[in-house]
Amino acid sequence: MLSASIVLSLILLSPVLLAAPIAVYWLTNQDAHRAKPLIYLAVIGLAISALSATYMALAYPMKTLTFSYPWITIPPSAGGFNGIEITVSFVVDFLSRFMGLLTAWLAFIIGVYSLEYMAEDYRLGWYWFFYNLFTASMLLTVYSNNLLLMFIGWEGLGISSWALIGNWYKDDDELTFVGKVGDLMFGRPAWTTPSYAAYRAIATIRFGDMFMLGAIAAIGVLSHSLNFTGSGAVNWGSLFNMIGVAGTAALLTLFLLGPFTKSAQFPFNDWLLTAMTGPTSVSALLHSATMVAAGVYIFMRLTLSIYDAGALSAPGVLITYLVVIYIGLLTALLGSLLALAVNERKVILAGSTMASLGLMMGITAVSPYINSTVTIGSYIIPVAVLVAFLYLIIHALSKATLFLVSGHLIHETGTRFNAGDFELAKRMKPAFYSTIAAAITLGGVPPLAGYWIHAGMDDVVSSAGQYVGWGAYALLILASVVYVAFLARFTSLNFIKGERVKHAEGHGGLTMAISYSITATVALATVAIPFTLGVPSVLINPGLDAYVIGIGVVLWVIFIAVLIKPRSESLSGLTNLFERRYYIQALMDIILAGFGEALSAFTYLISRGIDALFNNLLPSLFTGFSRIIRRVQVGLLDQYARYIYIVVVVMLIIALILVIVYG
Amino acid sequence: MVEYLTLILSSMIGVVVVTAALMLVKKEDYAWIPAILLLLPDLYTNINYVIYPILVDVVIIGNILSLKVLESSQYRGLDYALMSIIGLVTSYVLYTPISTGAVNLAVYFGFLLGLFMVVSVASYFIIQIGARPENLDAAVKAIVAFVIATVLFFTGSVILLSSYIIGASSLPLFILGYTLVLLGVMLEIGAAPMHIWVPDVFTAGDPIPVSILASTVKIMPLMVLVKLMAPVLANLGEAYVSFAYWLTAIMAALSMIIGNVGALTSRESARVLAYSSIANMGYVLAAAAVLINESALGKGQQASQVLIYALAGLITQLLVNAAGKIGYFTIIKGGGKGSVYSYLFGLSFIGTPPLLGFWSKLFIILSLIYLGPAGLWLAIFLVANSVISIPYYIRVSRELSARAPLGITLYTVLLMSIIMLLGVIIPIPAMVVSLSRGLLSYIA
Q: Which among A198, A331, B364, B424 counts the fewest CB atoms within 10 Å?
């Protein structure tokens, strides 16, 4: 067994190092043809990373392993600070080995897809560098056991996301926009260009990151440790006792603002929808499968860490997690409704990603309310975390497939709006197959993976229903129903009942087709997970419940129905609300921007005031004062004598007053 | 061991005799040589005291050289002798032994008054050197002002004497007396609000006698003030010292601000220099105010620090003011040819390190700060005023920097520049401070 440091170095460094040549080369020579070997080199870097992650997942024993190397040591100080030791610490456990495996392979496959999809791009150096940097950052976040190290990866995700969303920064291709050009919302543009979308993404994410970093600092200072698990892990129990219920709730909320903004929970979700201005491969990797999942992943890791410390039932935790349940499930419902109403392919998928992330967040947050755990190998995992994690895996595979298909469709049909009928399906058989496969896997229809996992979710939420209220269960059911509806609508409007499309050039597409066929097949194959995991009580038993089977059948009915009749007379007002993405963009553009405008106007006013003070007021004051002083000099001696006399008399009077007062 | 007073007196008589002899043989052009030579005996004193006569002599030599720029005057050689006499008397004034006891004090007062009058009367003659009809106006104004100043000073010191004799319960008398004394001194040196004669005299007078007026004549009155108040205040209470300090400090502040602001909009260089003079008198009055505080400070390390810095600042600022004014007025007399020397004087007046003007202001500021809250405001005020003074000094320097000076003008300006540059050699200001420690014993 190779040592952890070697394997981890291969996983984390090979993408970045092998992408450096193309990045540097592209600065001087933008020839895609000549740069081909260097691009292959970058993809090889991804392959090495994927193979190393596989090795780590298979060859290492199935128990929680941590590998720590010394990094920063701050000694105790006289002012009462007890010192802290921050280590470069990695963890290989149930969550990280499989997440790492998933991320690395998806990155590789979508990288291969990009070879063809981005073949004619003008910014290849930029693209490949940040694509690989993203992969490395995501793997760092996944394998990291130390909050600060994780945060470094976290920020790497943010910057890569900004760079890749804004890849076509010249804003010259209408095909890359989100929304219809010329559409207005409260007088502001309702369409988004890549450069603006990149800015919205980074602004929202960074906003959450500020609070997250503050929370990390607080955790580090108060509990003298920043590790999730292992010997030097954070002692959550004593930390929560130290800061009290309100303090715990505040700390956890501030920390969770990072995952909330990164995983596009309501109301921080709008950046994800406009992030679709990036290349489709980017949308597939970042904004469906991995980067946005980082937020939920960290939430799961946090929950696991608190569970291991035995502090999951602390009152502050319970309060915070209750709020997260409802925010998550509400996000799920809102995302699904949004996806049902919009007409752009990638925005539908983005809305569905938002919904899925909401489900993952909400389900993970149920952990403190149900006391059951499962044992896999020598891992002990809370049930809710396991269910959410499995959902993350099937979602990643299915959503990536759907995005890759959309990219190919955009290339073929020349439009980003829903278009394509059965003729297109016949022409693009792999695409049609992949879409159906992904839809039925994710939708929750029996007997595929999604069904068993949704059954698990049902079980989890209903057993916590008496503690968290039945609203959560209602949201879950509603969200699932709408979810399967929009999946069917997407499939239908692009391959069955959509508008007819003129035959496009149809050049190439083989590499792309192979890529998404692979991911679609793997997605279908995930049906094996519930049966091979060895914990039937979590997924199988709930799935065999009659009530749940009934729900499954209803979902099939809805799926088929919408497949046949994807359009209906809209409840126009409500559909408008969904299609406008709940007017959040207007909120940001008018209210937040207006606040900024007011602030800068105020500052300008102050600046003008200072300017006037120093350039006008003070000089004229001094000049006037000076002239008054000089006016005394009249030149006549008798006036001078009189003046001297007056001054002496005045001084004597003052002296007299002083004499009277003090005499 | 010859007594210092005898030395001074003999030098005075000697210089007059030699000059008269030279006049008889019509060699009065060389009268400046005995003037300088017979000035130097005032350096023959004990090491504790010598820093002060050195400063005075440097200024007087500068004055004598600048008089040579003015080719000849109606005094035909006696003007050099007059300068020498002023120098000898000024050197002696600080040495006057302090007496206590009523009768002795009266004699002491009388003696100081006499010294004051010698310099004052001498200045009546000096202002008329080389006077043409248009300069006479200035001369008359100056003389009137000096006469009134002498009267005020006289009256005030008599009242102070009686206050001293009465002792503890004489605050009203003291207030009256001190006010008159201070007003007299201020009128003599030209500090606001008694500054009315300064701008006109400086502008209308011939630059060389004006330079003498601006340099040497300022030294004596301040020293007399400090020497006068030392024994008087030693005997009276806290309240008296407090009043004397605050009155002097406020007058100093007034002088600083009026001088600096008045200079900002003046056009002719001579007028700007007049207001600059008023401001500089503000700075030295601030130092004098600290010295007046002497009896209230008690003994101890902190107290002696304050007084040493105040005294060092006082004499150095007087030196800087004198050197700068002599330099500037000589340049003006020479037709505005100052080249780089004008800028040197300007920067020194502003207080740019490491020139001497910086050190003098630094000593005064330090003494004010160490004095405590009572002096802190004045220190800040002083710094602010230094900043206000920057534009007009640069303006004057620029106006007077046309070409390089020539001949005797050059020598005078060069000597004055060297004085300003002494501050660059760090040990020299340090030495001034350490020697002032010894000098302090002549005031306390």
A: B424
